[in-house]
Amino acid sequence: MVKVGIVGGTGYTGVELLRLLAGHPEVDVAVITSRAEAGRPVSDIYPNLRGHFDIPFTEPELDQLKSCDLVFFATPNGTAMKMVPELLDGNCKVIDLAADFRIKDLAVWEQWYGMPHACPERVAEAVYGLPEVNRQAIRQARLVANPGCYPTATTLGFLPLVEAGLVNLTGLIADCKSGVSGAGRGASVGMLMGEVGESFKAYGVPGHRHMPEIKQNLSVAAGQDVALTFVAHLVPMIRGIHSTLYATITSDVDLQAMYEQRYANEPFVDVLPAGSHPETRSVRGINHCRMAIHRPQGGDTVVILSVIDNLVKGAAGQAVQNMNIMLGLDETLGLQAVALLP
Amino acid sequence: MVKVGIVGGTGYTGVELLRLLAGHPEVDVAVITSRAEAGRPVSDIYPNLRGHFDIPFTEPELDQLKSCDLVFFATPNGTAMKMVPELLDGNCKVIDLAADFRIKDLAVWEQWYGMPHACPERVAEAVYGLPEVNRQAIRQARLVANPGCYPTATTLGFLPLVEAGLVNLTGLIADCKSGVSGAGRGASVGMLMGEVGESFKAYGVPGHRHMPEIKQNLSVAAGQDVALTFVAHLVPMIRGIHSTLYATITSDVDLQAMYEQRYANEPFVDVLPAGSHPETRSVRGINHCRMAIHRPQGGDTVVILSVIDNLVKGAAGQAVQNMNIMLGLDETLGLQAVALLP
Amino acid sequence: MVKVGIVGGTGYTGVELLRLLAGHPEVDVAVITSRAEAGRPVSDIYPNLRGHFDIPFTEPELDQLKSCDLVFFATPNGTAMKMVPELLDGNCKVIDLAADFRIKDLAVWEQWYGMPHACPERVAEAVYGLPEVNRQAIRQARLVANPGCYPTATTLGFLPLVEAGLVNLTGLIADCKSGVSGAGRGASVGMLMGEVGESFKAYGVPGHRHMPEIKQNLSVAAGQDVALTFVAHLVPMIRGIHSTLYATITSDVDLQAMYEQRYANEPFVDVLPAGSHPETRSVRGINHCRMAIHRPQGGDTVVILSVIDNLVKGAAGQAVQNMNIMLGLDETLGLQAVALLP
Amino acid sequence: MVKVGIVGGTGYTGVELLRLLAGHPEVDVAVITSRAEAGRPVSDIYPNLRGHFDIPFTEPELDQLKSCDLVFFATPNGTAMKMVPELLDGNCKVIDLAADFRIKDLAVWEQWYGMPHACPERVAEAVYGLPEVNRQAIRQARLVANPGCYPTATTLGFLPLVEAGLVNLTGLIADCKSGVSGAGRGASVGMLMGEVGESFKAYGVPGHRHMPEIKQNLSVAAGQDVALTFVAHLVPMIRGIHSTLYATITSDVDLQAMYEQRYANEPFVDVLPAGSHPETRSVRGINHCRMAIHRPQGGDTVVILSVIDNLVKGAAGQAVQNMNIMLGLDETLGLQAVALLP
Questions:
Q1: C299 and D227: CB-CB below 8 Å?
Q2: Is the confidence at residue B74, as pLDDT, over 90?
Q3: Starting from the edge strand earliest in sequence, which strands make up the sheet with D172-178, in order?
Q4: Residues A10 and A45 in one domain
Q5: What is the pLDDT of residue A206?
Q6: Same-domain check for residues A305 and A171
Q7: Touching D: which chains, 3+ CB pairs < 8 A?
Q8: pLDDT at D17
Q9: Do residue D51 and residue A270 have CB atoms under 8 angstroms apart?
Q10: Chosen from B53, B260, B338 to mutate, greatest number of chain C CBs within 10 A
């Protein structure tokens, strides 16, 4: 059994990691830390874990974490970067579910995250954990930056088009919608059910931190800079992201075939039959990205519809997928459930 | 008191008309028809109307309707066009909340609505009932085609840009989201709460009937044909439409000022302060369209956020606004409530 | 025009008061206070009020409040009791929407609210503002204690039975369900949509503050002490309370007729036809209590179903009703809208 | 591998069976029937099953079903009773998820289900499939009547009290609340999201089919007739049942200890610590019943809170549990997932 630790176990990505790891046959969760809840049984906060995890939250201690084979950081941005160097000095591997190691350009990172980076020397080494792009590198990695939720759904949706050089790279549009769990479990007026239930709105239109991450991904895929407009919206539901992507094609190819071929060997990307409209519920609780490709009225505008569960493929599930790859396990271990529908 | 009739009073636009007209000081609802529910008291189906309307639904009868000053059709597409000619031969004015008279090009109409038009001779005469564009014509009209819900939110959002000739007309994108009441009150598996609750999806991407209507509106405003990509999505909430609109500007102007000026005298269009993100709940139950204008990172892409209540400004409220104009009443009569928030 | 003030205008009962008073023809809202938001325009926090209230929140100042004819307290428990004495020394009337003056027995109040009462000398004078019971006293009152939400729905439901002495007073059960807006607009993890959406639970079963209030009401009506079990539940919706009430009848009478007669002259209590099941949406946004009376299988157990909008008849609407009575206005002024359905 | 068939695979209990059986290591689903959808791939209707079940729905054919080791009926009431006799004549075992074999008293069954019973001779033989009561009999059974959703949550909640003879059996009250998936996937106006979203109501108060089933269960447990008032309510969420149960105790015992002891060896009943309030989301997607026992203010009224997922322990999960027992497999196979929270 592989011994893993989770730093920051009380948020939604933390509990989702626990849910998935409870069913993982090769992993033993040895440590779950939480400063705020140290001493309290995990299942006290999350009754769905009763009978699965009977250990308590503990204070985060480096020595204890270093005894793990792999440590997940399910912490706010800016936490992992302070602890990662010491962990990597041991034999420990690390997956950061926050944004500390996602952006290669430090200046860009510091601009969008509003703080100096605490271990810039590790940024280059970190592998961006999108297996559909970086599987080989993840296999060798000791430090993986787990992608953001919007960037996962959006990058996977645009990827075949951009890799193939088939679209105008100066006018990409990503109109994205997320359930409320994406905002985490912190107390806030703005995420009360009384405020966000039965309503819909955009947010962060002047600038959202996931924009530079998506841009970086697409620029790498294109081999050149891309221009992207990214608008996030909040949906009155708990889980799910739907990215509606717009691009102008510059060449006439069979997009359906191209997408199917690009993802033919990917266990967690499902290209739906032509004409489909993926629903977020079709991936509720699972690690799949389902997508459909449209060219309305046969025009030059391609519309890609891409859905994930923001807490699974957009966070904890992708982290488990990365862990499986890093540890040489079957990539789908612990990730084989069927989506909860209805 | 003005005497009005409603044909098709059992659907969501019908009950919304009744809700609004119950508070209208100058109107008496004399007839409410429903083939299926004839004889049953209105408040039996809609208990919110108890004490406000104690009349029963009746079979639709032309003679009775002709005795009204104005008749609303809150019927499925294809119904009004069969009864309108005879009503107009009397002294009756008509507002059709369905699509029978919205599209001027009959071939386009017949293609999208899949039936021959029953009174093509009245199509040209019908005035498209968007007061912010056609107020003068509505004042004289005997037959008003009440706009669709998506077309209202989308047209009002694009209008100042397109009228001013400030955007590239070949790449307009309207990414629109609607609550479930837009689908009406007919029994269907697809709109069960078990199917659409806690999920999000696009629909009709290959082609949606509101696309030609929006295109017509924008082409009229531009004085030339426009190319538009329109994608509709279903939000797990009951009321509200959010249009997120994308356009490439071709000239550098103060968009905020331009929008504020364009709508300065409009009682039902509210341009929010720069930087705002309108929520659909801010117009729940009322006839307003609220909108905000963004230019993310100062680029060439303009993003307009435009919200309405699909049953009010997107249907029954706009119909009452049109009625007020047609009858020479204060345009805001019966439409002065405050949105229900939270 | 009557000049009114609102202390604590940023919570849900505050904004609901503003929504209702915006449509009240005889009232001018002269002051809206909020320590936290002083200086900020009201419509900045509540965009639904744009165009209706353009004044800013101000610091609560007694002199300014004393210039009002009537002051509403939409504040947390324990605030009104500190300011009321001085206001009453002037010419000002007061309606407290919190619990400071609801319980006549000071020891009981202090036990359940966990603080000493700051002006015990005014408690006896305060009139419990349930017009269906205390209309005459409210007319004369200078200080009205506006009832709680659960107590309103529950008391009105049990009232005819208890007044008539027709039930066993030792086994009353009130199984009550509320939407989330009842918990107010304070930041809390427990009321995040991620926590309360798509789930249902009971809360406060060992003891809830509304229990002694309901008991007091029913004991007054019965002329003797009653025993009551009260269980509150949280429903994943924003507005609405549904009280399901159980009692054992001791005498065989026509309950439907008795209820209809008891409430025949009440403008805001609607006894539905026999066999009905009131929905909370049938009173969304309005001041009505709708109820139905059942005797399943003709047994001895009576089941009363009673619904209100917790923010209207359960808070701000009842406060406006009380204000109308206190000021000698038509009791229904500002409260004549139709419920928003769907 | 055990070969199983599912008759009626398109409803919510059918798809839930498929979801659970997809993860069952000892079962092969050989046949899924649907008259309406014969020929269509299962995953076409339920995209969550893509990659898990690639077989199509077929017409129900007895010969094909008889080749299965066990057949589930996920059909409307009245279907299984017509096919069961012939299946039992072969070597096939049967679990009926509908109500055909739940009620032992045929006259009661025919009264509540409104039709003559098609195979009365098999009713006595059928075992009521509540493993916490009938595990031994289920082990031997060839025909299991899978309990209803409300009866499961309610019976498990009352059971220890009633078995121990500690409560007044003439005044039991079950106030139950269910998510909308309990109503199934048939097209109906009443279950549209526009009708049931953001609202709460009771239904079936004069009489609900689950009442005689619960009464039968409790009468068997008590060894005498019980009197029960049962009220069902509809919650605006998809999954989950919450039973709030009221009884008057006649003897003073440690209820918490008694409940913990009664269910100590039950893999799917979880008695929460004293003072708890179980949430339906804590069992979302899993086969557990979680419950808490209260005695508010130390009075004579016991309040039991009992939650299940209506589609799992209330239907398909309990059917899989019964199958495991009937086939001599580990009772928890295929039922070990963690609830999806949030």
A1: yes
A2: yes
A3: D201-203, D228-234, D172-178, D241-248, D301-308, D289-294, D269-271
A4: yes
A5: 96
A6: yes
A7: A, B, C
A8: 97
A9: yes
A10: B338
Confidence at D9, pLDDT banded by 50, 70, 90: confident
The Cα–Cα gap between A69 and A47 comes to 27
Are both A44 and A161 inside the same structural domain?
no
Hey, is the C-beta of C275 within 8 angstroms of any chain B C-beta?
no
Q: From the CA of A231, how many Å to the nearest CA of chain B?
A: 9
Q: Is the predicted pLDDT of residue B198 greater than 90, yes or no? A: yes
Q: Which residues of B are catalytic?
A: 149
Cα torsion through C105, C108, C110, C114, rounded to 10: -160
Out of B49, B185, B339, the one facing C48 most closely (by C-beta) is B339
- Contact between C97 and C8 under an 8 Å Cβ cutoff? The reply is no
d(CA C139, CA C126): 12
Q: Do A338 and D238 touch (CB under 8 A)?
A: no
Same structural domain for residues A210 and A89?
A: no
Portion 158-187 of C in contact with D at CB < 8 A: 171, 173, 175, 177, 179
Statement to judge: residues D261 and D187 lie in one domain: yes
Query: Is the predicted pLDDT of residue D125 greater than 90, yes or no?
Result: yes
User: What does the pLDDT look like over D138-171, one tens digit per residue?
Assistant: 999 999 999 999 999 999 999 999 999 999 999 9
pLDDT digits (tens, 9 = 90+) for C280-312: 999 999 999 999 999 999 999 999 999 999 999
pLDDT on residue A54? 82
Judge contact between A15 and A34, C-beta under 8 A: no
* Span C227-264, pLDDT tens digits: 999 999 999 999 999 999 999 999 999 999 999 999 99
* In contact, D286 and D309? CB cutoff 8 Å: yes
**CATH number for the domain harbouring residue C8:** 3.40.50.720
Q: How far is D203 from chain C (nearest CA, A)?
A: 6
Angle between helices B149-163 and B210-222 (to 10 degrees): 20
Is residue A9 very low, low, confident or very high in pLDDT (cuts 50, 70, 90)? confident
Is B131 part of any domain?
Answer: no
Q: Does D90 score more than 90 pLDDT?
A: no
With an 8 Å Cβ cutoff, are C229 and D301 in contact?
yes
Is the whole-model pTM more than 0.90?
A: yes
The minimum CA-CA distance between C206 and chain B, rounded to whole Å, is 29
Task: Read off the pLDDT band of C54 (50, 70, 90).
Answer: confident
- Token pair belonging to D215: 């009464």
D145 within a domain of the structure (yes/no) = no
Orientation of helix B131-140 relative to helix B210-222, angle to 10°: 90
What is the rounded CA–CA span in Å between residue B43 and residue C339? 12
Q: Is residue D130 part of a domain?
A: no
Q: Would you state the structure tokens that stand for residue C158, as one six-digit string?
A: 């049990």
Domain interval for residue D284: 150-310
D18, D278, D340 ranked by CB distance to A285: nearest: D340
CA distances from B231 to A175, B175, C80, D96 (A): 11, 5, 52, 44
- What is the per-residue pLDDT across A289-335, written as a single tens digit (0 to 9) for each? 999 999 999 999 999 999 999 999 999 999 999 999 999 999 999 99
CA distance C127 to chain A (A): 31
D296 located within any domain: yes
Which CATH number is D277's domain given?
A: 3.30.360.10
What region does B297 belong to: left with phi over 0, alpha with psi -120 to 50, or beta?
left
**Contact between chains at C338 and B281 (C-beta distance less than 8 A):** no
Q: Please give the tally of structural domains in chain D.
A: 2
* Whether residue C160 sits in one domain with residue C118: no
> Three-state SS for D28?
strand
